[in-house]
Amino acid sequence: xxxxxxxxxxxxxxxxxxxxxxxxxxxxxxxxxxxxxxxxxxxxxxxxxxxxxxxxxxxxxxxxxxxxxxxxxxxxxxxxxxxxxxxxxxxxxxxxxxxxxxxxxxxxxxxxxxxxxxxxxxxxxxxxxxxxxxxxxxxxxxxxxxxxxxxxxxxxxxxxxxxxxxxxxxxxxxxxxxxxxxxxxxxxxxxxxxxxxxxxxxxxxxxxxxxxxxxxxxxxxxxxxxxxxxxxxxxxxxxxxxxxxxxxxxxxxxxxxxxxxxxxxxxxxx
Length: 270
Fold this sequence. Notes:
The chain is α/β, with parallel strands linked by helices and about 270 residues long. The protein has one domain (about 5-255): TIM Barrel (Alpha-Beta Barrel). About 40% of the residues lie in helices and about 15% in strands. The protein contains 11 helices and 8 strands. The chain has helices at about 5-10, 20-35, 45-55, 80-90, 110-120, 135-145, 165-175, 190-200, 205-215, 225-235, 245-250, and strands at about 10-15, 35-40, 65-70, 95-100, 125-130, 155, 175-180, 220. The chain has an 8-stranded parallel β-sheet with strand order 7-6-5-4-3-2-1-8. Helix 7 (about 165-175) links the parallel strand 6 and strand 7. The protein is globular, with a radius of gyration of 18 Å. The chain starts with a helix and ends in a 20-residue tail after the last helix. The relative contact order is 0.13.
């Protein structure tokens, strides 16, 4: 896995729930800010809009890292590859840089969907493969089942949710975590600690949260439609939170505020 991939994938621009002109404008602003990694999914219904927006950026294919995710409804062997090919057509790509399975299958048996994921990887439709919303036990099993390194496990990750079990599994398996809902859809801003730290580091509260995520060893996936916020979310690499301040933020994990909880395909969370 190249250094360029690792560095770019650290900061990904998420596209949910954007479509149409809102998505195009946000993508163009993200590229101007420095983003080169973009995340979508079959479930988001915006792959074609993202493909068109990326074409309008004028960037060469090798300058972009594009990730998409296979919907659980398409995990069956007779649907998996066809759904990936449909996604690539929509994105105007020959391959995805990262292809995720979006959730564990209902019932929790991950073997079949991982086998299909490996097949499309071997067929050249994805440079890297990954999983999302896997539990620690699923991460360990996936490492044993899959013959190539997994690029990540994309999960809900923010200061108000203790994900230490997943962090331990990431260290054990070598499957890194990637965050979504990094600011808990704004819930973190109800906590004065982030205003205090923002003043101390001369940063915004959002940048404090994102820096905490990165220092936990977790890649960030952020979305905004405001150019100033897009740039602020990207500009989080040139300062470091102290170990004392990291620990103060860590303590908020006892809140156990989970955003993505009650969905038909959600596993039994750690």
